[in-house]
Amino acid sequence: MKWQEVRDIYPNQFVKFEILHSQEIDNQETIDEVAVIGPIKDENATHELLHSKENTLVYHTSKDQIIVKIRKSNSLRRTL
Length: 80
Prior knowledge:
Elements: H1 3-9, E1 14-25, E2 28-40, H2 45-50, E3 56-60, E4 66-69
């Protein structure tokens, strides 16, 4: 389902979904097709997002587009 369709069905609320299609450009992922799992109450949105796995996200339908910044891990390991 396209994001605009999700916004029409679930206006002004958080929605949990699985990413079906996205494009990565300059450390940003633009998600344009999703499979809706369901609406999420405002008070549960943070908890649901923190416990999301792999290609599952929680996002608010007030946003025109789903754009996620991609962070590259530059962790260093220290050996003793």
